[in-house]
Amino acid sequence: MKMPLKRLTALAAAALLAATVSSCSATNDAGTSPSSSASAADYSGTLNVFAAASLKATFTQLATQFEAAHPQVKVSLNFDGSSTLVTQITQGAPADVFASADLANMKKLTAASMAAGTPVDFATNVLTIAVPPSNPANITTFADLAKPGVKVVVCAAQVPCGAAAKADAASAGITLKPVSEELSVTGVLSKVTSGEADAGLVYVTDAKGAGDKVKAIPLGLAKPTVNEYPIAAVAKSKQQAAADAFIKLVTGADGQKVLKDAGFGAP
Q1: Which of the four, 16, 50, 101, 102, has the lowest number of CB atoms within 10 Å?
Q2: Residue-wise pLDDT tens digits, 129-161
Q3: Pairing, β 215-217 against β 127-131
Q4: Torsion of CA 145, 180, 93, 112, to 10 degrees
Q5: Tell me: the pLDDT tens digits for 1-35?
Q6: Number of domains in the chain
Q7: What is the CATH number of the domain that holds 71?
Q8: Could you tell me if 190 and 164 are in contact, meaning their C-beta atoms sit under 8 angstroms apart?
Q9: Helix crossing, 56-69 with 253-261: angle to 10°?
């Protein structure tokens, strides 16, 4: 029995439409198009992340997560004082991502037109007093740091933790006479854990991360200085896609959980 020509034509059109819809559905169910999948797979090589010293534990953890999600990428981490890092970058160091412990040093990057896009705040932090577990100088308040004979260590003024220490001391109405000024908060913490200092001003996250190696004593200020942490891709980076992906990890739910667990405040 022969089928009418019009019916054959209608069936052919319906079959073509069904095939087209099926093809589109397969793309949508995958959550991405073939071209975007190829783009994600293209992440490869080394991603150089320059991050403030206080981010060492959290960014090391996040770098491991990122490498697991992107096996072709090796994340190279460079931790130091934010002022040191931004100087390195503006002088030509091969950085792809910069995470600062304050806005001031990030502004140096943007002022040099070396930030790709607008930096994004991803965390906050405040200072605390760290003393050896035995607390040899019997420090109980912020004012105790100004007592004669107390060996106090702080960050240098150009470093975010140093600027915060200076502001907090002014707010408390005390004058600190440190025996040493370090270029990173990890330097301050090291002086305390080694017994070279009676006390040091470090971030709450560093004191928490040190565990039983130090005892943390709150500053007791009504309005302590809050350092905001911004992150940005570096304009001259050849790894812009991977840099953006790393920043999304830091600012996304997984990154924020890691930071919160370490004691950082929300941005």
Answers
A1: 16
A2: 999 999 999 999 999 999 999 999 999 999 999
A3: antiparallel
A4: 60
A5: 444 444 434 444 444 434 443 444 333 333 333 33
A6: 2
A7: 3.40.190.10
A8: no
A9: 150
